[in-house]
Amino acid sequence: MPLGSKLGEIVDDLDRLTRASGSVEDLMWEIVKLLHDRLLKYNWVGFYMIEKSVPGQTRMLALGPFQGAMTPHTRIPLNQGICGAAASTGKTVIVDDVSKDQRYLACSTETKSEIVVPVFVHGKVVGELDIDSHFHAAFGDEDRELVEYCAALVGKQLEKSET
Hints:
Blueprint: H1 5-20, H2 24-38, E1 44-50, E2 60-67, E3 75-77, H3 81-89, E4 93-95, E5 113-121, E6 124-133, H4 141-162
Antiparallel strand pairs: 1-2, 1-6, 2-3, 4-5, 5-6
C-alpha cells in the first residue's frame, strides 16, 4: 500500500496488531485506539456492526468498539444517516462538510467531516468503520486507503473466526 511514511508506519503497526490480537473484538478495539491516538484529525473512531435480523423489524447497526466522545447513536437503522448509506450500498462514503449532507445524524456540533467504510465478510456487509473529524474535508485518498485497509483487516479476521 503506497502511503506516506506516517500512514505506512500505521499500516505496519496494524499488521502487527492483527497478528497479535486474540479476538476480532480485541482487534477492533486496538484499531480504533491506534487511529484515534495517532491521527489527530480522527476525532471519533468507531465500529458499527449489523445486528442479526429479526423478521418484521428494521435492520440496525449497533455501536461496537469506539474511541472519542460518547454518542447518542448507539443503534442506527440501515436506512438512516451516512452510516446507514454506507452499510446499505456497500460503498465508502466521504462527506467533506456534514452540515451540507441531509443524511448526517448529528452527534457533535464539532464534527465537520466524516468517512464511513463498510466491513465485508464473504462479500457481504456486516458492519462498518466510522470516523468523524472536527476539520472540513479531512479525508483524502490516503485516508480512504487506510480506513478501507482497517475495515478489510476486520473482515478477514471475522472470516477466520468462522472456521
